[in-house]
Design goal:
The protein has ten helices and five strands. It has a five-stranded mixed beta sheet with strand order 1-2-3-5-4, with helices on one face. The two termini are 68 Å apart.
């Protein structure tokens, strides 16, 4: 598919035709009066035809330049059209092609000078022809180089814009994944607590008033905690300065409270913590430890309801080790799982330089499910 020719290009084409006709008019005006009428008519016809052919010079630059060289064998009135043709070839084709076409024009000009010019003016006129031909060729090469630079810059700008859009899409995708991970980590525990206690109210229809009030209070506290966590996460999406400040993220210091909450729900939890409490720990590392424990307890309640859970935290080889173990339960909770918590937790720890392992293992007395995490911990 050929590129379209714009109005500006057509204006330049008309300008080239006018230049060719002006040169032809000057040459015809200088023709001797003794020249016959048919010969003058031939010169005028060839001049008009050569000038008109320039209208198609952009589409077939080499062909048009070579066609113009033919009438140059009998008249120099088409010299203006020849110069425009050389400029077009130099600005549209390689420099080798431009030199080749220019050589053809010079050979034709030398033939015309040898036939129609005599004496020492032959060499002077030939040198003048070489000088005149070099001007449009040099100009055309400069225009071609400038066009290539502009095209290169435009191509680089297009690629940079496409790369920026791709990078923006990737960043948005990563941000969506981060928000989804935070939503799961923060809300899955709270909502599962609400579901667990609500299920207890259904099963224990004979519970006394005090037990029902205690369970309802736990449900209310879990629901309020879920709303607070949701408000904290959605605060990240707010861009106005009047947004309320977010609550501090969960940390190692919040793990005992999390254990007490689980125990209040009727889950037997064995908790052992030998991490140094007086050590200044980065907020990210402390929050990651909390998320590991929270995910392990949430999964134990969902998939092994009624099983005992063991939570251990200690220092090993400069890393913080967190292990959450539970026996494989005979029944699973009716709380639906998203099957993405461990994937998000693995990604979270990997990004922070840690690692996560999980799976079913054979214990001393029974088969257990183990969630093991290794996290960087400052000395």
């Amino acid at each position: 598919m050929r590129p379209s020719i714009g109005r500006r290009d057509r204006c330049w084409d008309i300008g080239g035709i006018v230049l060719a006709l002006a040169v032809s008019a000057l040459v015809v005006a200088e023709l001797p009066e003794s020249m016959s009428g048919p010969r003058i008519a031939l010169v005028v016809t060839l001049s008009l035809a050569s000038a008109a052919s320039l209208w198609w010079r952009r589409r077939w630059p080499v062909a048009i330049a070579l066609v113009i060289a033919v009438p140059m064998l009998v008249t120099d009135a088409v010299g203006g059209a020849g110069l425009v043709g050389l400029y077009t070839v130099a600005s549209r084709r390689s420099w080798r092609m431009a030199i080749t076409v220019a050589a053809v024009h010079l050979i034709v000009s030398a033939f015309w000078l040898k036939v129609f010019e005599s004496g020492q003016s032959f060499y002077a006129t030939l040198i003048l022809s070489v000088a005149l031909s070099s001007i449009p060729i040099a100009w055309g090469m400069v225009v071609k180089a400038r066009r290539e630079v502009i095209d290169s810059l435009r191509d680089r700008a297009d690629k940079a814009e496409a790369a920026a859009l791709e990078r923006a899409d990737r960043v948005r995708g990563q941000e969506r994944e981060r928000i989804a991970r935070e939503m799961h980590d923060a809300l899955a525990h709270r909502i599962s607590m609400v579901s667990l206690h609500a299920g207890a109210l259904e099963v224990r229809a004979d519970a006394d008033r005090a037990e029902i009030e205690a369970i309802a209070g736990t449900i209310r506290a879990s629901a309020h905690g879920a709303l607070d966590d949701l408000r904290e996460i959605l605060g990240v999406l707010r861009s106005d300065e009047d947004s309320p400040p977010m609550r501090p993220g969960s940390s190692v210091a919040d793990i005992p409270g999390l254990i007490d909450e689980i125990r209040a729900a009727g889950v037997r939890v064995e908790f052992e913590d030998t991490l140094s409490s007086d050590r200044r720990v980065p907020a990210t590392s402390s929050r990651n430890v909390f998320r590991v424990v929270q995910e392990g307890l949430t999964n134990a309640r969902k998939h092994a309801a009624g099983s005992d859970v063991s939570v251990r935290m200690w220092i090993e080889g400069g890393d913080a080790r967190v292990s959450v173990t539970n026996a494989l339960g005979t029944r699973a909770s009716d709380v639906p799982g998203s099957h993405s918590g461990l994937i998000g937790l693995t990604e979270r720890l990997t990004l922070s330089g840690g690692r996560l392992e999980h799976g079913v293992r054979a214990g001393a007395e029974s088969t257990v499910y183990v969630l093991d995490a290794w996290l960087p911990w400052p000395a």
